[in-house]
Design brief:
75% of the residues lie in helices and 0% in strands. It is mostly helical and 163 residues long. α2 runs antiparallel to α3, α4 (58-71) runs antiparallel to α5 (78-90) and α8 (128-142) packs antiparallel against α9.
């Protein structure tokens, strides 16, 4: 490689490897990119995505994202929280899903996916009043718009009315 310490080259090469299904090589390049620029969230996100796409290696994806958070505690990292939340949903870690959803909502009060995940987590944790509150917030945010999130919230409220 002509410029082995150039961050951009490492991330582009990793992207190329990932697109070609060469996960092992992509992981190596992304780890080198992290060494070059440990404060940049991009290689951590991409590393987590490579792990997820490589036979659903969720634990390694989680570890990569948590490493970034640990190294950069004061950085508002909504994309990291979103991907970490996805990992927690896939691994059914409902307490963590709820925690991440709340962090995302604090940073972006209109993130309907975060509300949906919070509703799911509350249902799994049998916190029905909290689930209702999140459903109502989704409906308030959606207004008269009839989208998948508002339909989901209405469906959950319907089911909860029978409890």
């Amino acid at each position: 490689m002509l410029r082995p310490f150039k961050f951009e080259f490492r991330t582009k090469l990793a992207q190329f490897y990932a697109e070609k299904g060469r996960s092992k090589d992509a992981i190596i390049e992304l780890k080198k990119a992290i060494d070059i620029s440990p404060g940049n969230q991009e290689p951590y996100l991409n590393l987590a995505k490579v792990y997820i796409n490589d036979n659903e290696r969720y634990e390694e994806a989680e570890a990569a994202l948590l490493e970034f958070i640990k190294k950069n505690p004061d950085y508002a990292m909504i994309d990291v929280y979103r991907l970490l939340n996805y990992v927690y949903v896939q691994t059914e870690k409902w307490d963590e899903v709820l925690s991440q959803s709340k962090k995302i909502i604090q940073l972006d009060q209109k993130d309907l996916n975060a509300y949906k995940y919070a509703i799911m987590a509350n249902l799994k944790l049998e916190k029905y009043d909290d689930a209702r509150n999140f459903c109502n917030r989704v409906l308030n945010l959606s207004g008269s718009e009839d989208n998948t999130h508002s339909k989901y919230a209405k469906e959950i409220l319907e089911r909860l009315s029978k409890k």
